[in-house]
């Protein structure tokens, strides 16, 4: 059994965008229930991400609708999907169950008294990224030319996440905000980011950032976004392996895993066109790494980082 844990996908946004899509088997989704079953998924993270085409004042409504879709379409229609509300839930999954974990990608909808965030944590959110690519009330995202750090509300939100034993996701933050987060976050991860030295892009992490994540015993998910993997026209599975190997060379072999970004990307890696291709990646990993390391990359390293 493969037991894949994948820390990031945007399929909830795809279901929100077009509710006629079926999470069970829509051919235009990268990630479906049937594919999770056939590939041997252990747990999939489902991001609550609202595209900036939705005006800020309507974003929380969209989040609530996506939450409903998650409960109805992902959990409600598949008895085999089990919501992960605690680390114990994940550890106690039976062989034929697949865990589903809610995450947040961007808090543009946040209410300053944090009640909305508390509500979503109660609903099962286990990891929170403060921003998407742009600025909001908490911080600057990676694509803001100004590159500012956290606001006082941003710091307050992280204290809130610490208190509730929730992972803080640094993917998408500006470099300065990343360093601000590391001064306060007790449970930092980068759910879907690659190595900037191998592929310079503001969304990727520089060596000192990766080393800092390893030093605080955080976790980093290599992502299958072609233009975060290579500057070549086509990205291949070998590119994914290059990023894995680089993080290992910095000492991160136990802090590493995957956050595919399936259904959040238009272009895909050659040989990794959807979740059903995870086997191709696993076959390549097995050629280069011990069984223990591959098990760590595929899921056990993430499991260890989950605070509760
Ligand atoms: Zn993203």
Automatic annotation (TrEMBL):
Gene source species: Mangrovibacillus cuniculi
Coiled coil residues, start to end: none
InterPro entries: Metal_Hydrolase, Pept_M19
Molecular-function GO term, any one: metallodipeptidase activity
Protein name from the UniProt record: Membrane dipeptidase
Domain of life the protein comes from: Bacteria
GO biological process, one term: proteolysis
UniProt-listed SUPFAM superfamilies: Metallo-dependent hydrolases
């Amino acid at each position: 059994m493969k037991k894949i844990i994948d820390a990031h996908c945007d399929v909830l946004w795809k279901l929100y965008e077009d509710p006629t899509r079926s999470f069970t088997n829509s051919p235009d989704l990268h990630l479906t229930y049937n594919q999770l079953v056939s590939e041997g998924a252990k747990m999939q993270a489902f991001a609550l991400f609202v595209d900036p085409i939705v005006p800020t004042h309507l974003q929380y409504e969209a989040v609530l609708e996506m939450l409903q879709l998650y409960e109805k379409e992902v959990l409600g229609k598949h008895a085999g999907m089990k919501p992960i509300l605690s680390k114990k839930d994940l550890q106690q999954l039976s062989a034929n169950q697949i865990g589903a974990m809610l995450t947040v990608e961007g808090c543009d909808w946040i209410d300053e008294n944090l009640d909305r965030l508390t509500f979503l944590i109660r609903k099962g959110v286990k990891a929170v990224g403060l921003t998407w690519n742009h600025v909001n009330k908490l911080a600057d995202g990676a694509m803001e030319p100004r590159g500012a750090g956290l606001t006082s509300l941003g710091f307050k939100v992280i204290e809130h996440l610490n208190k509730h034993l929730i992972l803080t996701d640094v993917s998408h933050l500006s470099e300065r905000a990343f360093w601000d987060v590391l001064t306060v976050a007790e449970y930092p991860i980068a759910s879907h980011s690659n190595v900037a030295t191998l592929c310079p892009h503001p969304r990727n992490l520089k060596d000192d950032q990766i080393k800092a994540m390893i030093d605080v015993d955080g976790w980093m998910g290599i992502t299958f976004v072609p233009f975060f993997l290579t500057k070549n026209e086509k990205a291949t599975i070998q590119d994914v392996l290059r990023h894995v190997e680089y993080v290992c060379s910095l000492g991160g072999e136990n802090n590493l895993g995957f956050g595919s970004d399936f259904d959040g990307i238009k272009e895909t890696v050659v040989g990794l066109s959807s979740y059903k291709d995870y086997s191709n990646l696993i076959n390549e990993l097995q050629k280069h790494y011990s069984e223990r390391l591959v098990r760590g990359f595929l899921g056990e390293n993430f499991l260890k980082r989950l605070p509760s």
